[in-house]
Fold:
Amino acid sequence: MSDASILLVDDEVSFVETFAKRLGSRGFSVVTAFSGPDALKVMDEKGPSKIDVVILDVKMPGMDGLEALAQMKARHPTIEVIMLTGHATVESAIEGMKRGAYDFMMKPAEIELVVAKIEAAAGKKRQHEVKILEAQAHMIVLRRGD
Structure:
């Protein structure tokens, strides 16, 4: 069981509904979106502290997953994004990693593998957040010393 919160983004409604239930039954808090712009709106409304990991489809109409990834990382740099697609190419995987994706997985992915990746990505996000808080605390101490 995990306490990580997930944003699941895919234009295939049936996939999102089924996968959200499967993740929810494993203890994850899951929010869904069906497009890149909807996902960005959800992230902006909830804030980066309320979403640990985004599972993002690469192939979507309009704003594709790679563009959504770039905007997510620009707005919320500590968020971890797992790209999930049924149409992967080596080039799209490399581009996703260049844009800051945590990992790249093919559909259909085994749920236990996805869960392991989510937990690892959520742990990485929490480590970054702790380092940021430590740096902020250090700066406060230094300022008080002046």
User: Anything to note?
Assistant: The chain has a mean pLDDT of 88. The beta strands are 5-9, 29-33, 53-57, 80-85, 103-106. The longest strand covers residues 80-85.
